[in-house]
């Protein structure tokens, strides 16, 4: 392989777009420095890629949360309108005032049951991460006596 202009062979490394190889030997310190720079650049690029992915995922999560919020609001309106329909339906049997009172009492009972169930579940929640504390204690003990 030769260049028509110069009349001498072109090294294959230069043809591949890579820098030409010097005949001088590069010192080990220079190689380590280049490696450190390359690793640093790689880590920065990976960090930027991770940030971009997180931004994209956060955007998708935000849109999904908005849809779930709208679905919750639609569910709330459905419950309210069904409550009105029940009250007006009961109004044919009893007066409108009694019908709305009956619907309100039904909602009060449902609220009390949900409150009671939620409160009992909340009592089982522990604010301390017990398993993590136990493993940290084991790790500390092992660090004091690594052979035992």
3D structure, described in words:
The protein has 148 residues and is mostly helical. It folds into 2 domains: 25-78; 91-148, no CATH class. The protein contains 4 helices and no strands. The protein has helices spanning 12-15, 28-90, 96-123, 130-144. The model has no long low-confidence stretch (mean pLDDT 81). Residues 1-21 are annotated as: Disordered. The chain crosses the membrane at residues 65-90, 96-118. Pfam families: Phage_holin_3_6.
Q: Structural class per helix/strand content?
A: mainly alpha
**Average pLDDT across residues?**
81
Query: Unreliable stretches, pLDDT < 50, 5 or more residues?
Result: none
Helices and strands, in order, run as HHHH
- The count of helical stretches stands at 4
Transmembrane segments: 65-90, 96-118
Keywords: Membrane, Transmembrane, Transmembrane helix
Organism: Umezawaea endophytica
Region (Disordered): 1-21
